[in-house]
């Protein structure tokens, strides 16, 4: 019962470096999402993929790109990291019609120095 | 911009008491959901209430929805120390029902 798996759990980057956050789900969900959570705030949607082969911008997409590699995997890439991207990143998945809500991964804590 | 706003931002109660958290939102919704987040962990889905429902129960949880006031409440009865967590409401808008917008959360502390 893995659910949603995110890697890595922690990462420190220097300003300007790039990295990819990986996310995989084993629940046969159609839709996948990337959120960021900053201290004292709720989650803000970065990008989402309603179904395999489609991706769309959320509330805060600037500085990020995504790839829906297949039905299971949805990656988030930071091309040139900035201190403002220091945050906790959560991947989630759902059936798409929201039956049962979202299933979240345990998060990636990213610090950009 | 955030669709849902929780009230209060923080709540401290004694074990055994009931905890009530409120959520207000701005636009018409397809459904509203509540999630729990323990410190340092991911969010866990608690309950979903659709726009045509007024009340829903799940164990010690009771959720109400008033679409005329654009508000919802989450009641946790007979609270336990293990209920200590942050609670978030999230709304799915009518025009994009599979995409959730989260509020800023209520931090609940249940004192033993």
* Shape category of chain A: globular
The overall strand count of chain A is 11
Major sheet of chain B: 6 strands, mixed
Radius of gyration of chain B: 13 Å
Strand content of chain B: over 45%
Give me the count of strands of chain B.
Answer: 11
- pLDDT averaged residue by residue of chain A: 93
Low-pLDDT stretches of chain A = none
Portion of residues in helices of chain B?
A: under 10%
Q: Indicate the percent of residues in helices of chain A.
A: under 10%
Mean pLDDT of chain B: 92
Shape of chain B: globular
Largest contact between protein chains?
Answer: A-B, 28 and 25 residues
Largest sheet of chain A: 7 strands, mixed
Q: Helix count of chain A? A: 0
Can I get a quick summary?
Chain A is an all-beta fold. Helix content of chain A is 0%, strand content 50%.
Description of the molecule:
The complex is a heterodimer of chains A (113) and B (112). Chain A is built from no helices and 11 strands. Chain A is mainly beta. In chain A, a hairpin with a 6-residue loop joins strand 5 and strand 6. Chain A starts with a strand and ends with a strand. The model of chain A has no long low-confidence stretch (mean pLDDT 93). The radius of gyration of chain B is 13 Å and the shape is globular. The mean pLDDT of chain B is 92. Chains A and B meet through strand 4, strand 5, strand 9 and strand 10 of A and strand 4, strand 5 and strand 10 of B.
């Amino acid at each position: 019962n893995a659910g949603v798996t995110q890697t890595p759990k922690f990462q420190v980057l220097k300003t300007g470096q790039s990295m990819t956050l990986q996310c995989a789900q084993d629940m046969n969900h159609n839709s996948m999402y990337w959120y960021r959570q900053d201290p004292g705030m709720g989650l803000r949607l970065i990008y989402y993929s309603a179904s395999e082969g489609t991706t769309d911008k959320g509330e805060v997409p600037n500085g990020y790109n995504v790839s829906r590699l297949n039905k299971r995997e949805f990656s988030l890439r930071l091309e040139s990291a900035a201190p403002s991207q220091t945050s906790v990143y959560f991947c989630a998945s759902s059936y798409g019609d929201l039956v049962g809500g979202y299933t979240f991964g345990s998060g990636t804590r990213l610090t950009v120095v | 911009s955030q669709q849902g706003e929780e009230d209060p931002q923080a709540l401290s109660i004694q074990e055994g008491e009931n905890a009530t958290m409120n959520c207000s939102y701005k636009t018409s919704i397809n459904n509203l959901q509540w999630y729990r987040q323990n410190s340092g962990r991911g969010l866990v889905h608690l309950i979903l209430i659709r726009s045509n429902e007024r009340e829903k129960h799940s164990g010690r949880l009771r959720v109400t929805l008033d679409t005329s006031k654009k508000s919802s409440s989450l009641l946790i009865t007979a609270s336990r120390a293990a209920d200590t967590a942050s609670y978030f409401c999230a709304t799915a808008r009518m025009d994009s029902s599979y995409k959730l917008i989260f509020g800023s959360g209520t931090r609940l502390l249940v004192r033993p």
